[in-house]
Amino acid sequence: MAMMMGLTAVPLIFSVGAGVDYGAANRMKAKLDAISDVAALAAVDHQSITGTAAAAQTAAQTTFTAQAVNLSNVSVSGVSATVTDSTSGRIAVVNYTATKTNLFMGLFGYPTMTITGSSTAQAGLPTDINFYLLLDNSPSMNIAATTAGINTMVANTPSQGGCAFACHESNPAADNLGNPRGVDNYTLASQLGVVTRMENLASATQSLMSTALSTEGTNTSQYQMAIYTFNDAGLNTIQALTSNLTTAKTAAANINVLEVYSNNYLTQTNNNNDTDTNFETAMSQVNGIMLSPGLGTPSSTPREVLFIVSDGVDDEVSSSCSQSLDGNRCQAPFSTTWCTTVKNRGILIAVLYTDYLPLPTNTWYNDWIAPFQNQISPNMESCASPGMFFSVTTDGDITAAMQTLFQQAVATARLTK
Fold this sequence. Notes:
Layout: H1 2-42, H2 53-68, E1 74-86, E2 89-101, E3 112-123, E4 129-136, H3 147-155, E5 168-169, H4 185-192, H5 197-219, E6 223-231, E7 234-242, H6 245-252, E8 259-260, E9 265-267, E10 270-271, H7 279-289, E11 303-310, E12 313-317, E13 329-333, H8 337-344, E14 348-354, H9 363-369, H10 373-383, E15 389-392, H11 398-415
Parallel strand pairs: 4-6, 4-11, 5-8, 11-14, 14-15
Antiparallel strand pairs: 1-2, 2-3, 6-7, 9-10, 12-13
Helix pairs in contact: 1-2, 5-6, 5-11, 7-8
């Protein structure tokens, strides 16, 4: 019996010792797994998420090493961190391999035990976006902003047959507008307290800068803004691309309707026959300014978004126009060829269509605009990227519309490759 007890004692001692060593190894693995979790989270925390994937990878490895060095009776033989950025977010994976010294199993030829583990952490990435605002400031955009304002303007311009547009002329005397003290309709609107669409657009753009500033502070993204107006002469730079949104807000106060010399004259010597809206030239010019878009992640270049606000009607000299007026003057819905070119570059286009107001009592409108009135809105929508079109009618809130479209653009940019 004594001999048998002696023989059975050996495996019993081995089993107990192995159990002790395995128990200690499991406790050590739990500690290493916790450290691995902390390291993976360090790559996607609020501080690291604004940096590059390479920097986050280094942070994860450094965090693991700094924590693991405090553990006794274990040696970490390898730790690796892989951090990947995509439009779906940042994924950090930390793998480790460690060796633990056995207390009992070493007596039986097993001096160490290998422990391995892995942790994964994921978080949404901030999306850096460059916004380019392309704002139509041609005379047709300076209509009174409300029905009441339109009625006021019409009632106070009887010598013009009733005009709801606050056109800006440096020499209104040339047209004998019949306004008090010889002022242009722009000044008349101001005197009457009539708010115009361009005034609303200027204040809405300023408000948009404030919203962009607060939004990037909330989601750690960075937005840059460029503001341009366009008319017959192409682009007019209100604010070049800047990350200082406070500066952009200040500059937006300078948004105003195009000032012409008089009816048919852009300047005193330039008889342009009132062809004051050239969308295609503006699109060509802004396309040359916009950068090549990236993913907008910290490891990439920003996304690019073109933000267009217009009533959607071209008024330019064109021999290829579907309905040319006198002297090759063309009034027609915008050509969307450049929209396609821009979108094919991976640049998103957001479009705010400010409704071109029908004027059924106006002969010119009935002859030249009315035939394609119902095509303007669908045409503008076709220019926009999917889900990034918004329309505002008379009495509509341009500020709210721009805010809504901005948030949609931000959301779309975060989801689109």
